[in-house]
Write a structure and sequence with these properties.
With 270 residues, the chain is mainly α. It has helices spanning 3-23, 32-49, 52-56, 58-66, 73-90, 95-100, 105-115, 120-168, 174-228, 233-241, 246-269. It folds into two domains: 1-28; 31-258, no CATH class.
Length: 270
């Protein structure tokens, strides 16, 4: 689980609850009818706007947003450089078995196309088409939560109108006026909190994770094409490192230096 995401949600909710507790009775801010209006209405709009398949993807998308798994571009670059070295020594056919041992279907497919002797331009086209539709699938998930973030405040306003109508219909009963006003204000509060603390941040997190995965696959495409062109492994490494930020490059270089030192130490002891 992504502890930062969970901590952010808990911190936001916790600070609001604490602030409410300082100001008065926290029970005043609980309204089942407001919850039903905001969350029930928002989800109903999702069902109207999206297909059943897309609606059912909401829970898997939540798992993605709260997962800690990150795309390790530095590790992918190291693997591609290793493939380039193997290709130079043993030929492209030697890569087929090594690629199948990885857990990256996208990389496996690219290497298989190269091993099969597919033209470089066609390899690029096939891989970029697959990447394009991957981005489209990710964009649907982001759009679902962005729309939920837009709809929940609107349902908060609908709840406000319902509460005002109830209040105006019971002006002769002071108790009912208070209930109607409470529903009116609390529903607006729920809609704003749901939008700005839950739905829109989750959409942003999904976009971030999608960008990381797309970057990793762009690294794979460039690496695969460089291997097919027979480029020097050092050139392949420098080319692919351009996809990394300076901090990531430095961290990758440190890891590589440690790995070399460890290998040299084993060799000396042997």
């Amino acid at each position: 689980m992504d502890l930062v995401t969970i901590l952010g949600l808990l911190m936001g909710l916790g600070l609001m609850v604490f602030a409410i507790f300082l100001e008065g009775d926290i029970r005043m801010y609980w309204s089942l009818s407001s919850l039903l209006i905001v969350f029930g209405g928002t989800f109903a709009s999702v069902m109207v706007n999206f297909s059943m398949k897309e609606v059912l993807s909401v829970l898997p998308l939540l798992r993605v947003a709260f997962s800690r798994k990150r795309s390790d571009s530095a590790q992918i670059i190291e693997t591609l450089v290793e493939f380039a070295e193997v290709s130079r020594r043993e030929g492209l056919l030697a890569l087929e078995e090594r690629a199948q041992a990885t857990n990256e279907p996208f990389l496996q497919k690219g290497i298989q196309l190269v091993v099969d002797g597919t033209d470089a331009e066609l390899v690029r086209n096939i891989m970029e088409i697959e990447l394009y539709f991957l981005e489209e699938r990710h964009r649907i998930g982001q759009r679902i939560f962005e729309q939920m973030g837009a709809w929940s405040p609107a349902y908060g306003m609908i709840g406000t109108l319902i509460g005002l109508i109830a209040m105006l219909g019971q002006l002769d009963d002071p108790d009912q006026v208070g209930i109607g006003m409470a529903v009116a204000l609390i529903t607006t509060l729920y809609g704003a909190v749901a939008s700005n603390l839950i739905f829109l941040p989750i959409a942003g997190k999904l976009k971030l994770k999608s960008d990381e995965e797309v970057l990793m696959k762009q690294v794979m495409i460039e690496g695969i094409l460089s291997i097919q062109a027979g480029e020097n492994p050092r050139i392949v490494e420098e080319k692919l490192k351009s996809f990394l930020s300076p901090g990531e490059r430095e961290a990758a270089e440190k890891e590589r230096s440690k790995a070399r030192a460890s290998t040299e130490g084993v060799t000396v002891n042997a």
